[in-house]
Amino acid sequence: MDYEQALEWVHSLPRLAAHPGVENTRRLLEKLGNPEKSLRFVHVAGTNGKGSATVMLASVLHRAGYRVGASVSPYVLEFRERFLLDGEMISRETLAQILTEVRAAAEGLRAEGWDSLVEFDAVTAATLLWFARERCDIVCLEVGLGGRLDSTNAVENTLVACIMCIGRDHTELLGDTYAAIAGEKCGILKNNCTVISYPAQPQEAMDEITLRAAKAHCPLVAPDLQDLHIYKAPAFENRVNYGGYDLVVPFPGVHQAYNAAVVVEAALALCEKGFDISDEAILGGIAGARFPARIEVLSRRPLVVLDGAHNPDGARALAATLRGAGLSGLTAVIGILDGKQPEEMLSALAPCFARVYTVRPDSPRALSAEALAALAKRHFPQVTACDSVEQALRLARGDAPEGLVVCGSLYLAAQARGLLTK
User: Do 325 and 232 belong together in one domain?
Assistant: First the structure.
């Protein structure tokens, strides 16, 4: 297959399994020679903050001189973002070759009567096959959904497991309490790996993480917020001291300061396992990390901010960041997927926006612009439903004296970013 054919094949697979589990990926990896067995992992789960922590830690390890694979999910701009080696995306030609091999293995399983693979099974297998071929020293691997039943949980050699901020998302699959959701996320723990927890977990979630870590005989570290100081800085700059490390965090928001503290602790845990990571690598790696659509400032004059926050916790983090920058009366373009608690998201954003243009993101699960507008009118004084993202951006940019924010979905962020950066 060429690159386009490879993408067409992988996207043709079902998105969700009828019976979720890790067995699909294990069987696929076995057909491919179990490439994951030659790799070591930092496994990153949680509701919010997984991607930011993954790319920051991968940047630290690369700065320390290691050959680092990183896999993030979902991608924002291009499918190849899921396959990163030392910060660079896989080439189209190599990805086509890898996916061709994965397809052959999948068809072998189908011939044996195993026909339940989903898209993320194939993506995970391709990721691990490529990282093994490239002889990565370590892989920073972001969970797709949950943890216990996620495709990425087919890996075994987990040195460090990061449990990022726990929130109520995907409750139909993971449970409707913090404890239940945290339990699913902690399904990635392997015996004797070091567990690093986000420092501001809901207490119910933290209790479950503590219990699960003890059962797996895993040392548990949670950054102490008394050791974290956030400096006063210009809007959208994030300067933090954590445990004596003066950090320049490249992503705005207090939540990203907390994520950076997790990354520092993960790096220190890897040092205890034999990795040589200098203080300079920690400082320079965090400062040099890049990740689109995480309260990303595309322009300051006029102000244009793009954020992929797609659940209530993410919306609250965005709102807190905008308030911290002293901003109000902004104009927003918003698109939200069904099932993402849109009412709660809109309520969190209500103090920030005077004018809202609603759109339908490019996803079959997205709310229509009209349905979202009907909800938004309960929270914002001016609401307009738009036929397309292009129309919404055109109207919003002409009606944004205080600045423009595009938010609500990573699908929307992917559509809008290319249009806004032209």
Answer: no
Task: Give yes or no: residues 281 and 306 share one domain.
Answer: no
* Tally of domains in the chain: 2
pLDDT confidence of residue 310? 86
Q: Tens digits of per-residue pLDDT, 346-355?
A: 999 999 999 9
Q: Strand 138-142 relative to strand 41-45: parallel, antiparallel, unpaired? A: parallel
* Residues 333 and 199 placed together within one structural domain of the fold: no
If asked whether residues 67 and 170 sit together in one domain, one would say yes
Asked if pLDDT for residue 173 goes beyond 80, the answer is no
Identify the CATH number of the domain in which residue 328 sits.
3.90.190.20
Same domain, 354 and 230: no
Task: Give the pair of three-digit tokens for residue 258.
Answer: 């907390």
- If asked whether residues 307 and 282 sit together in one domain, one would say no
Which residue, 256, 287, 318, sits at the end of a domain? 287
Identify whether residues 279 and 307 lie together within a single domain.
no
Question: Could you give the CA distance from residue 379 to residue 344 in angstroms, rounded to a whole number?
Answer: 10
CA atoms within 13 A on the CB side of 281: 20
Q: What is the mean pLDDT of the chain?
A: 95
Q: Which domain holds residue 279?
A: 3-287
In this prediction the pTM is 0.94
The closest alpha carbon to 157, from 267, 248, 56, 41, belongs to 41
Burial 309-340 (b: 16+ CB within 10 A, else e): bbbbbbbbbbbebbeebebeebbbbbbbbeeb
The whole-angstrom separation of Cα 265 and Cα 86 is: 21
Encoding tokens for residue 56? 């920051």
Cα separation, 127 vs 130, whole angstroms:
5
Task: Residue 99: name the closest of 16, 13, 20 by CA.
Answer: 13
Q: Are strands 41-45 and 194-197 parallel, antiparallel or unpaired?
A: unpaired
- Beta-strand ranges (E) seen in 27-166 are 41-45, 68-71, 84-85, 88-89, 138-142, 158-163
Distance of alpha carbon 131 from alpha carbon 137, whole angstroms: 9
Give 365-421 pLDDT, tens digit per residue.
999 999 999 999 999 999 999 999 999 999 999 999 999 999 999 999 999 998 998
160 and 69 assigned to the same domain: yes
Are 96 and 3 in contact by the 8 Å Cβ rule? The answer is yes
